[in-house]
Design a protein that fits this description.
127 residues, alpha+beta, 2 helices, elongated
Length: 127
């Protein structure tokens, strides 16, 4: 833990943030920044004055935990992403499924249709 002689709430918050950054860097984690959330981090939401980390995986939402700062929640979210990526690549009917972390479904070429069902598409020759 970082030490400081100043006991003000702002310095304590700065110390927690600095410790979370050091922790993330030491573990080789990549924090997932997001301009689309009020916290600035993907998967981190403000709830009742605290910050909840929720990993949205292929099999549904996974509650990671509730934290005092958005940064510590972001570190926990990054750990959940690493754990999910460590899962073996899935195969179905002898075909390799292409995992894609930039797609909310988790798979390349798969999207959620307006009806809520999943739809797979593949382009051939640009069509």
């Amino acid at each position: 833990p970082l030490e400081s002689n100043d006991c003000s709430p702002l310095s304590a918050l700065a110390a927690v943030k600095a410790e979370a950054r050091v922790m993330a860097e030491a573990e080789g984690l990549r924090l997932h920044l997001s301009s689309g959330t009020s916290t600035g981090y993907k998967g981190v939401f403000k709830r009742s004055g605290r910050f909840e980390a929720v990993f949205i995986g292929v099999r549904g939402d996974i509650h990671v935990g509730v934290f005092d700062t958005a940064l510590t929640a972001a570190v926990a979210y990054a750990r959940a992403c690493v754990a999910a990526a460590a899962q073996p690549v899935s195969e179905a009917d002898g075909l390799r499924l292409h995992l894609f972390d930039k797609n909310p479904t988790g798979y390349k070429g798969v999207r959620t249709s307006d009806s809520g069902r999943f739809e797979a598409r593949r382009k051939v020759d640009g069509r």
